[in-house]
């Protein structure tokens, strides 16, 4: 269970500091000077970097059922590991959302989950840029697919860049959040969405299906692109040098 515990812990850190940045430092409890979209994006990205370099050698630091699915499709892990990782990641995310909720409730600045939310994902009227379900779905699929392609590429055993993999992955997640926070709050991670939705309830729970289905579809597509060598670099350096016409 060592790998699963590492995944639960890593996902806890990702959600606690990522969602926590939005709720605790993003104006959710009456803070006058919030850290804004850029700050929240960096909190998610830096959390991934920290976990990649600390627990990466234990479990791979997936921190995300979509990443685990992409890894399974690409042949990196088996189905049993995907399931156990996904359960651990989801539990870690729920615990993190609970911790953020408790801290926010104990603020003298006042916290109303109905008014301020708890970092849940969403779409439609009253949420972010009020993108409709199609726009939200397409963003989550595309963003997750890109995320998986990057992760699988930089962690490829023979052609990847392991020294910089954690940094590249964290920066990619930051990039995705910079665009996606206004669209959906940015999920690309079913566990990250499940945790806050359980405490927000209502619309967040009703819309949760999208933040499970879309990221998993994107992850499957990203995993297939890598497996079919469409986006993964060739292992033979002579193939790179010869070019496509050779």
UniProtKB/TrEMBL annotation:
<dbReference type="GO" id="GO:0005886">
    <property type="term" value="C:plasma membrane"/>
</dbReference>
<feature type="transmembrane region" description="Helical">
    <location>
        <begin position="197"/>
        <end position="220"/>
    </location>
</feature>
<keyword id="KW-0472">Membrane</keyword>
<dbReference type="InterPro" id="IPR000425">
    <property type="entry name" value="MIP"/>
</dbReference>
<feature type="transmembrane region" description="Helical">
    <location>
        <begin position="131"/>
        <end position="152"/>
    </location>
</feature>
<comment type="similarity">
    <text>Belongs to the MIP/aquaporin (TC 1.A.8) family.</text>
</comment>
<keyword id="KW-0812">Transmembrane</keyword>
<dbReference type="InterPro" id="IPR023271">
    <property type="entry name" value="Aquaporin-like"/>
</dbReference>
<keyword id="KW-0813">Transport</keyword>
<feature type="transmembrane region" description="Helical">
    <location>
        <begin position="35"/>
        <end position="55"/>
    </location>
</feature>
<feature type="transmembrane region" description="Helical">
    <location>
        <begin position="164"/>
        <end position="185"/>
    </location>
</feature>
<keyword id="KW-1003">Cell membrane</keyword>
<feature type="transmembrane region" description="Helical">
    <location>
        <begin position="82"/>
        <end position="104"/>
    </location>
</feature>
<dbReference type="InterPro" id="IPR034294">
    <property type="entry name" value="Aquaporin_transptr"/>
</dbReference>
<dbReference type="InterPro" id="IPR022357">
    <property type="entry name" value="MIP_CS"/>
</dbReference>
<keyword id="KW-1133">Transmembrane helix</keyword>
<dbReference type="Pfam" id="PF00230">
    <property type="entry name" value="MIP"/>
</dbReference>
<dbReference type="GO" id="GO:0015250">
    <property type="term" value="F:water channel activity"/>
</dbReference>
<protein>
    <submittedName>
        <fullName>Aquaporin Z</fullName>
    </submittedName>
</protein>
